[in-house]
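Hi both,

Apologies for the delay on this - the queue was longer than expected. I finally got the 6-O-phosphono-alpha-D-glucopyranose-bound model through. Below you'll find the protein sequence and the ligand SMILES exactly as submitted, and right after that the structure tokens for the full complex including the ligand.
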Amino acid sequence: MPVSQHSDKTILTHPASGAGAEVYLFGATLTSWKVKGEERIFLSEKAVLDGSKAIRGGIPLVFPVFGKGKAPHVTASLPQHGFARISRWKLVNSHEDSNSVVAEFGLDHSMISEEHRAMWPFDFSLVYTVKLSAETIETQLRVHNIGNQAFDFNTLLHTYFLIPDATKVRVIGLSGVDYTDKVLQTTARQEGDAVIRGEVDSVYANLAATNIEIQFGDNRAAGGVQLHKNGLKDIVVWNPWAEKAAGMADFGNEEFHRMICVEAGQVAEFLALAAGDSWQGSQILSLL
Ligand SMILES: O=P(O)(O)OC[C@H]1O[C@H](O)[C@H](O)[C@@H](O)[C@@H]1O
């Protein structure tokens, strides 16, 4: 079966190509994308997969706040990155056509904990669609305001890429973009490709470009992944490096060498969604 449901996760298989993906219902977190015989998504060997905390790796979904909300904003008491990544979603639909296999996951206000509902009292519905094709995977989030009052939200497809060597990776497509460096607590303009030489936590705001490349070395021959984004203005680049990694219980001490997060979303500013309105954003990953 191209889409099979197990107790805790959904497995998508693209029969003609052998490509595959796995999505945990907890957080609708995609934890694996295999294409051309290789895993492309980083999942920590220490990731907790029992639903007791956010999954360390894959594509956690950030909603409705990025990082920790700040008073007096209504998101101030929510956990870091919101509740979507720590709520149990359900598989609402699956289908296939000649090119792709699709699974759709849903989360709405009736499915989140009482505690989170009290912290963020809006009526919403999220639909997350994962579309696996022979050489690409598309992940799309739709946000529906089904209540009678407007709400603000951030969202982010917090993608952890599995890479051969963090010191060699280049993130292409950010040159000339202003960013907030959360490590140095400064703002700057990116000149040239973004590279990793230590802890990186940068929020690039309002990119005109829609294609970002995660190139594994100095040229395309080194391989890599293209991230094509749609309706998502901002990009976050993150690598915790040694010291932060050592302080994270669910991240192996040496794992920072083989991962980079390049995260497409709406985080520099909140988006406002009027009662009855919907919004959508997506990314398509493909190999370079
Ligand atoms: O540890 P988490 O809550 O999963 O957050 C992991 C990281 O997510 C984003 O990339 C943020 O920019 C970082 O500041 C944060 O450390």
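Main takeaway for now: The first strand starts at residue 3 and ends at 5.

I'll put the files on the shared drive as well.

H.
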